[in-house]
């Protein structure tokens, strides 16, 4: 006799495909791991009919049912700038759409869900006042911290004031929103500690950052020779301010030092929607190229001799670091670029915060094949043993089951499924 599984609704503020941002990759990996597990999963997100048709197979891999709402039409920059005047932070105001509010309210009113998950804290702006079930917020970052870091880096006084204003709004919104959830999930213990103290939360659970080890398979890197010029690669969404800031700083401060010693070197910037100003900056420099969106980042990473994460602002954890490590490309990162990931400098990656140090590390990787090989081997072993995406999904499932138990829903499958999951 089959036991009906508890039902889980997963509210995402954006359509998950293509997987071209770290947040979408992380969420998709978690959902793929939840599929056919303890819960019957319904995914709720914006999507057009075309998107649903184009990505139907991928949707079937991550959920038992998919319910969509109509996406807000693209707004011109001047109109989006008006969100700065809103009481809410800009990224939260952007997700507060009438169609999204109606859809989430309608679905949760018509169907009973034992657990409702909101993906990213700004998705909580779509939350109905009352939910008859346990609630979980999946935080990918400490959002207020990102705004604070932007303010600290801003040289323009007007931009500094804007970032500080956004930080204050997000700090208030983040605390008010997260205190309403049964459980809060963070992607690192560092983030969990920040949220506990800043938002006055009694407890925050954590899941490891997981990478799909089957998709991001290991391959020995190429030699440095005439057929394979020394190559550095960066991957990431180039419409995210933190990535733009880090890459721009790398181009201005680090790349000239590398080029001075290795004029044949190449720097490939892989990621969707690079701003026009950055594309022009890249074109003016020898050996630099912006690809824009690509179908498969693996081709670029596996052809490189160094993978750089030159971030100066940001939050959460960078999945890109583990993807590069899984593929065997040696990583050079700033402290913020590797933040929250339980890996060791000089064993699994090279930690360099200043431009001169980053340049020296990249040049050393170009020149030393043994160092490249040793770093890549140890990094892959580390990721393989501790950070597969199935491990992260299992941890997330346990948290949702514990939230259900804490909420006291009394679902007949709770105790048995919990025990089975914990035994696994």
Explain what this protein looks like in three dimensions.
It contains 17 helices and 13 strands. With 424 residues, it is of the alpha/beta class. It folds into 2 domains: 7-210 and 388-423, Rossmann fold (3-Layer(aba) Sandwich), CATH 3.40.50; 231-386, 3-Layer(aba) Sandwich (Rossmann fold). Mean pLDDT is 92; it is low at 409-424.
Provide key terms for this protein:
single chain; 424 residues; alpha/beta; Rossmann fold; 2 domains; seven-stranded parallel sheet; six-stranded parallel sheet; 13% strand; globular
General shape: globular
Quantity of strands, as a count: 13
Global Rg: 22 Å
Task: List low-pLDDT spans.
Answer: 409-424
The CATH topology annotation of the largest domain reads as Rossmann fold
Q: CATH homologous superfamily of the largest domain, by name?
A: Glycogen Phosphorylase B
Summarize the structure.
This protein has helices at 22-34, 49-54, 56-62, 77-81, 90-95, 98-110, 143-153, 157-178, 189-198, 241-261, 276-283, 298-301, 319-327, 355-367, 369-386, 389-407, 414-423; strands at 7-11, 40-46, 65-69, 115-119, 134-138, 183-186, 205-206, 231-235, 266-270, 288-292, 306-309, 331-333, 350-351. The protein is of the alpha/beta class and 424 residues long.
